[in-house]
Design brief:
The protein has 770 residues and is α+β, with helices and mostly antiparallel strands. The chain is built from 20 helices and 31 strands. The strands form seven sheets. Strands 3-5-1-12-9-10-11-20 form an eight-stranded mixed sheet, sandwiched between helices. Strands 7, 8, 13, 14, 15, 30 and 31 form a seven-stranded mixed sheet that branches. Helix 12 packs across helix 13 (400-412) and helix 17 (639-657) packs across helix 18. The chain is globular. The structure holds ligand MTE, hypoxanthine and dioxothiomolybdenum(VI) ion. Hypoxanthine (HPA) is lined by residues 226, 297, 300, 304, 334, 338, 432-434, 437, 501-502. Hypoxanthine binds next to helix 9.
Length: 770
């Protein structure tokens, strides 16, 4: 079944925030944000702005009736800076005017002076200065201290990954409309309507039940609207609260890029130990997460880095420590993979380093160490592993050895162009790592004409969750998909929702929908058995089997004269409820942070990708030739949607690893602040070929209809692009001293192609073998 939104999307009829018809007297907001990264506000002169054309009011921290606080995990983030600013782009004042243009023009008329304070942009420096968001955490298994003694080879190094701009097509935005009795309806382009509701209640000092947050769909979120949609929605609500008028704010692209956080850059140290058979015996990693100026979701992101620090591998002795470091950048936030990719990059770098030094392909280390069923991750959960199956299937289908030989053959006969290939196995845990967030509710109404309306906590952001939820109801009721409507995500209909994140929306909300539909079906079944007895000519002494198939009712396998519609009407006449609100939470998950052990994930998703590239060694430019994947879908309930998720994730992952380069200067100013200076993959830079083979696994799992979550895992295949480029560079210049420092932009490729390991590097080489 195709995505239910495809028709409207193509015709431009889908409703995004900017498509909501505006009410009369709507006002427009714009933010005056900090021009410096760290300092004390000395003076704030708003007189000229106040008198500017069309300006209605300017709000500052003093105008907040409740708490000036939007921090979700740690209360460390002001909505509007009061006395100090902590990053370039931090909102200081909110201007409300009669038009968007007037609001923006007035922003330029605000004059402020600051007493600058020292700016930190490097997480290692922040750590040295004790600037940590939360205390460090360490995941451990086995005994790392004694394990080094058993290693034949030990290698150490450093690996860095940069941030990533979400670049959702629809920028951040909200529209708040006052209702009667002090209530406010907030339309918000958010992945977390409840986060908006909770935070707006806190800032306004009103109870949550006064705030109706409604989200139709997002033009992309990718994690960037899990937490960071909240500020803009709360600002609109604040203005609407004071002025009793509808207030809208949707950010311009450059404002969005400047003021919002991104994927966390990480700087990490690794040490890996192997025995003679290439088994990884020990792995130690230290992660320095660049959290930015406030916690936002950083502690949770950091936790997932630790969970995924060994990727798809079983390592018996592990010690991984992570520091969430406070710097003066916009608070970094969720981004597809949520810290997992940053952790995986480091162990892949460690393996690549070991492979270089041992003069063997990385794949021979990777394959040897894939986690097997029953083996334990460092956090105590035992694997139900498809890692080896994915790898073997990849080899069988695409023939790793042959591909490598073809590349070697090409490289031997080509001077200007060199090819490189890398294999990227992935293992990603499904569930919010915070156990309590794994819950969802679904409200299903069957109307008397047999049509169905469904509301859940899931937010549609292009990933197709609404299509999947619709499929769930269509399957349980066995009715035409066209008879089902998925409604907006709304905090008055569905309360206390978790954000649509962690790839878990279809599982959690789909299962809640399944339960709701099953309960309605049970009631209908009772009526069918009572009412259909006469027509179906059945044995009245036993409870006959009931079946609904394509809108017809079958009793004891015999088609009756009853349709879905007739049955629904009969239930209504008998005063039987045709509505249900169901709750779902996955069984068996738990985690004890005091021990850093537990069973945090409902299940894992596995896969293996081969990424091949060609580098132009004269210019440093490159192409991604192909990505060949075997991906563990469980049993996909929607192949089109799931393949789309894979392709999108892969391209986004490749972008992060190759061309997307966020640049902050030493003063904490974003230099890559527009699409002219920040490059994302376009149609010309996507891989020439992406082949995805579905590994359909029979194993039972907790996914909806055994269709495994797919939103985030494929992004991590993109990491292979970095290592493929690295291999191509090494084919040209075997002495290149390539730092593990992503992204591998064409500039960096060029520098590496012509860089030689200096004598000093060789002497100081951190690697030793024994
Ligand atoms: N796909 C599209 N088209 N747009 C998005 O914003 N977000 C990704 C992924 N796929 C995203 C997307 C992220 S970060 C997550 S967590 C999942 O979708 C969330 O949706 P799901 O739980 O329904 O998979
Ligand atoms: N993944 C994504 N988003 C989240 C998580 C998670 O594990 N925890 C809190 N928000
Ligand atoms: Mo996705 S980063 O969990 O929104």
């Amino acid at each position: 079944m195709k995505n239910i939104d495809s028709y409207n999307h193509v015709r431009g009829e889908s409703i995004y925030l900017d498509d909501i018809p505006l009410q009369a007297e709507t006002l427009y907001a714009a933010v005056y944000d900090s021009p410096i990264a760290h300092g004390k506000i000395k003076t704030l002169d708003m007189s000229e702005a106040k008198n500017a054309k069309g300006v209605i009011r300017i709000l500052t921290a003093k105008d907040i009736p409740g708490e000036n606080q939007i921090g979700g995990i740690v209360p460390d983030e002001e909505l509007l800076a009061d006395t100090h600013v902590h990053f370039c782009g931090m909102p200081i004042a909110l201007i409300i005017a009669d038009s968007e243009e007037h609001a923006r023009l007035a922003v330029k008329k605000i004059k402020a002076t600051f007493e600058p304070l020292p700016v930190i942009t490097d997480p290692r420096v922040a750590k040295e200065k004790g600037e940590l968001i939360i205390p460090p955490r360490t995941f451990q298994s086995g005994n790392i201290e004694t394990a080094w003694k058993d290693c034949s080879y030990i290698f150490e190094g450093r690996a860095d990954t940069n941030g990533q701009e979400h670049l959702y097509i629809e920028t951040q935005g909200a529209y708040a409309i006052p209702q009667e009795n002090g209530a406010i309806r907030i339309y918000s382009s958010t992945q977390g309507p409840t986060a908006v509701q909770r935070t707006a209640a806190r800032v306004l000092g009103v109870p949550m039940n006064k705030l109706e947050v409604d989200t139709t769909r997002l033009g992309g979120g990718f994690g960037g609207k899990e937490d960071q949609a909240t500020a803009w929605a709360v600002l609109c609500a604040l203005a609407s609260f004071h002025l009793k008028k509808p207030v809208k704010y949707s950010l311009h692209r450059m404002d969005d890029m400047r003021m919002t956080g991104k994927r966390h850059p990480y700087s990490s140290d690794f040490k890996i130990g192997l025995n003679k058979d290439l088994k990884i015996l020990a792995y130690e990693a230290v992660f320095y997460q660049n959290a930015g100026a406030a916690a936002d979701l950083s502690p949770a992101v950091m936790e997932r880095t630790l969970f995924h620090c060994t990727n798809s591998y079983f390592v018996p002795n592990v010690k991984a420590t992570a520091y969430s470091c406070r710097t003066h950048l916009p608070p970094n936030t969720a981004f597809r993979g949520f810290g997992g990719p940053q952790g995986m990059f480091v162990i892949e770098a460690a393996i690549a380093k070991a492979a270089d030094e041992l003069k063997i392909p990385a794949s021979s280390i990777q394959e040897k160490n894939l986690i097997r069923t029953g083996e334990e991750f460092p956090y105590g959960q035992k694997a139900d592993s498809e890692a080896n199956e994915c790898w073997q299937k990849t080899d069988e289908l695409y023939q790793i050895k042959k591909l490598q030989e073809e590349i070697n053959h090409f490289n031997a006969s080509s001077d200007q162009y060199k090819k490189g290939m890398a294999i990227m196995p992935v293992c990603f845990g499904i569930s919010f790592t915070k156990t309590l967030m794994n819950q969802a509710r679904s409200l299903v109404h069957v109307y008397t004409d047999g049509s169905v309306g469904i509301s859940t906590g899931a937010v549609e952001m292009g990933q197709g969750v609404n299509t999947k939820i619709l499929q769930v109801a269509a399957r349980i009721f066995s009715i035409e998909p066209s008879r089902i409507k998925i409604n907006t995500t709304n905090t008055w209909r569905i309360a206390n929702t978790s954000p649509t994140a962690a790839s878990a929306a279809a599982d959690l909300n789909g299962k809640a929908t399944e339960i709701a539909c099953m309960q309605i079906l049970e009631r209908l079944k009772k009526i069918a058995i009572e009412e259909c007895v006469v027509t179906a000519d059945i044995d009245k002494t036993e409870i006959p089997p009931f079946e609904l198939k394509d809108e017809w009712i079958y009793i004891n396998g015999k088609k009756t004269e009853w349709t879905w519609n007739k049955l629904v009407m009969a239930a209504y006449i008998k005063r039987v409820s045709l509505s249900e609100l169901a709750h779902y939470t996955p069984p068996g998950i738990h985690f004890d942070p005091s021990k850093e052990k537990g069973h945090p994930f409902a299940y894992h998703v596995y896969g293996t990708a081969i990424v091949s590239v060609t580098v132009d060694c004269l210019r440093g430019i490159y192409e991604i030739d192909n990505v060949k994947v075997v991906h563990d879908f469980g049993k996909s309930m929607n192949t089109i949607v799931d393949l789309g998720q894979c392709e999108g994730g892969i391209v986004q992952g490749i972008g992060w690893m190759t061309m997307e380069e966020i640049v902050f200067d030493k003063d904490g100013k974003l230099r890559s602040n527009a699409l002219s200076t920040y490059k994302v993959p376009d149609i010309y830079s996507v891989p020439k070929e992406i082949t995805i083979h579905a590994l359909e696994t029979k194993r039972d799992n907790l996914a909806i209809f055994r269709s495994k979550a797919v939103g985030e895992p494929p992004l991590m295949y993109g990491i292979g692009a970095y290592f493929a480029l690295r291999n191509a560079i090494l084919a040209f210049n075997p002495n290149a001293n390539i730092k593990f420092d992503a992204p591998m932009t064409p500039e960096k490729v060029l520098l590496n192609l012509y860089n030689e390991k200096s004598d000093q590097d060789m002497e100081n080489g951190q690697s030793k073998s024994g």
